[in-house]
Amino acid sequence: MKILYGVQGTGNGHISRARAMAKALAEIPSVDVQFLFSGRPESEYFDMAVFGDYMVRRGFTFYSYAGKIDRVKTVLNNNIWHVTQEVKALDACQYDLVISDFEPITAYAAKRQGVPSLSISHQSAFKYDVPKQGQNMLDKVIMRYFAPTQHSIGLHWYHFNQSVLPPIIDLAPIASVSSNGAILVYLPFERLEEILGVLQPMNIPFICFHPDCQQVTRAKNVSIRPLSKAAFQDALMACEGVIANGGFELPSEALSLGKKLLLKPLAGQFEQLSNVATLDMLGLANTMETLNVDVIKQWLSCSECQRVSYPDVAKALAQWLAKRDMSSLPLLHQELWSQVVFPEHVNELLSDFWPNHQRKHAMFNMRLPVISNKKAKQH
User: Which domains are delineated in the chain?
Assistant: First the structure.
């Protein structure tokens, strides 16, 4: 079985998820996978050995500045004609299946050439009736047409009685998890100088990974490090908590390791707004709208978050793909969610609001709170 696997390269979360899938698919001799990445320059990819002889295309990307989406720069720096040429030039007919993790070149090449296609992504979860916040008509159009496929598998932290699967996580041995008291900070869309200005007044150690950093350095109590998969994983395994934007993969990894979370969504990005609101509602993370010393200090005083136990979704998905039986997806859904174990306080919250479906969605019409005192006490 030959698979063309397209990955959106604008976010490291997509790549991290693809790493887990690459390892799982490599364990199946009957499957041969070719990876393609788009959305960032080839020179900006790192730690890519697991993907073998991967391909890179320009594709589409987005731009941000100071924690906000820069819509003007995003429009001006994306070339639809160039992307169309990349789609036409890609030969998808040699593959039995095209998988897209929100990657448009492979998705449209498969559609154009009549090759079976499947999306496996967090974005696909928003096609279902899951909590959404800040979504406008443009967001709906992007979700529907950015990387369209014949079939889709969405990934989310909770199923919300929809056909979505638990997160794909590059699982690490739980025995190696510890807590050294440091806080891991990953805010790639914020300006580094602004991050340092907020963290330095506090008398605790921070480890900050940022794309603007070229070599390891220190600024008072903040260790500043360049992006590195191995170094980042080591810091994540050993930290006490994580401060991050509102992506999907890093919070999933942190929850699976029992690390407490403080999340600041990227302004203007409905997916991040929805992610942060969902985790806040489930009692699994605290939130802030802006970088704020007082909010961070309040969060630091909270006790450690309890761990969410997720199964090895990548392995299960790889085995399911090898069987080529789309009709068995409901069984896979049931099997995986039956293995998820939430902390007790999450089960209590779910039992409180789940019976009233309308009330659950009404919660997401409210303004995103700076931080929830109720959740802080539960943590």
Answer: 2-169+311-337 (3.40.50.2000), 175-308+357-378 (3.40.50.2000)
